[in-house]
Amino acid sequence: MKKFANLYLAIVFLILYIPIFYLIFYSFNAGGDMNQFTKLTFEHYATMFGDSRLMLILVETFFLAFLSSLIATVIGTFGAMFIHQTSQHRQNMLLSANSVLMVAPDVMIGASFLILFTFLGFQLGFVSVLLGHVAFSIPIVVLMVLPRLKEMNQDMVNAAYDLGATRLQMMREVMLPYLTPGIIAGYFMAFTYSLDDFAVTFFVTGNSFSTLSVEIYSRARQGISLEINALSTIVFLFSILLVIGYYFISQEREGNNA
Prior knowledge:
The protein is about 80% helix and about 0% strand. By secondary structure, the protein is mainly α.
């Protein structure tokens, strides 16, 4: 049974990663397309880094992901605390409302934001995309932090109050340190969702702002360029570094808690 499970996992990972490594492999192709590999070259990477518009969009996309994830993490963390302190009936209602953005189609969410911003006369651009990303990232953070809150021993909170701590001191010295693993997980999840979102961004982005997903879509309509392969390779490697960083941070937190 164990061998079958390992074989199944190996097949799943192969299906998931073979297309990615296929894309990375052809990013070094001097032939200019993905039909046949001719010889090794770094020309497409040089072209990518020489494309000032693409580099600007790359920086703006990562800045958007970092900022929206940070805002969503702060709001989502305190939102999870508020939900945890309410009655069970209200918790169920609030969690149901919180899950709407998780299960609703991205196209519907993007169209809803577009209608809202148009109705308010809000100019589409960086701020509109930021608000959209924060909105769909908050439920992710809530779902990451809330289970940690439910696992927390209430005696720790009561002990802090018995020792004369104020509510602010209790949150800073007891609750937030305990919630840190969930907060970090929520931030990384929100960052990932923001980084690769297309549907919502496509609706709420303006002419003055674009993200990698929208830019790649626009360029792909004109024909696949190996410059996009090179860019995708860089983003994939950065994502791997994020996962490794998150792993070591989690391990360090678990070691400290132990």
